[in-house]
Amino acid sequence: MNENPYMTLAKVILPKEMTTYFDLTKVLTDEYNGEPRIHLYLDEKDKAPDNRTDLSSNGFYEESCMNDFPIREYRTVLHVRRRRWKDAEGKSVSKDWQMVAKGTRYSKEFATFLKEFLGYIPDYGQIAPETISRKG
């Protein structure tokens, strides 16, 4: 099987949950306050919750951003779009993802690492997703 090389790389650097349920759609870099950042854009795969067959895809919820482990000298920002589903009555349905550590904008794994390594989770400030767009 010839897998997309970007997804192969993503499987090495991202939590398994991310590459199992999300597709890497774009990678961009920029600088914010003099720090290089890498932005990884992930869209939830087109698989209905609980393998339900009575749902139709209804676009995406607004993008969520979270910080993850740095890659080389780049701060890593994950831009995640969860899929929205609609049932036969028109009610919105989605999967309940718990990817962000409570009270933070860090992936669960990164927050756990920071807490164990530093004894606390530092606040690095805003991710500032408005500085880069999905269209870029």
Strand-helix topology:
Elements: H1 5-13, H2 16-21, E1 22-32, E2 35-44, E3 56-60, E4 64-71, E5 74-81, E6 83-86, E7 92-93, H3 108-118
Parallel strand pairs: 2-5
Antiparallel strand pairs: 1-2, 3-6, 4-5, 6-7
Q: How does this model look, in words?
A:
The protein is globular, with a radius of gyration of 16 Å. It starts with a helix and ends in an 18-residue tail after the last helix. The strands form two sheets. A four-stranded mixed beta sheet has the order 1-2-5-4. A three-stranded antiparallel beta sheet has the order 3-6-7, with no helix packed on it. It has helices at 5-13, 16-21, 108-118; strands spanning 22-32, 35-44, 56-60, 64-71, 74-81, 83-86, 92-93. It has one domain (5-122). It contains three helices and seven strands; from the N terminus they run ααβββββββα. It is of the alpha+beta class and 136 residues long. The longest helix has 11 residues, at 108-118.
Search tags:
136 residues; alpha+beta; four-stranded mixed β-sheet; three-stranded antiparallel β-sheet; 3 helices; 7 strands; globular
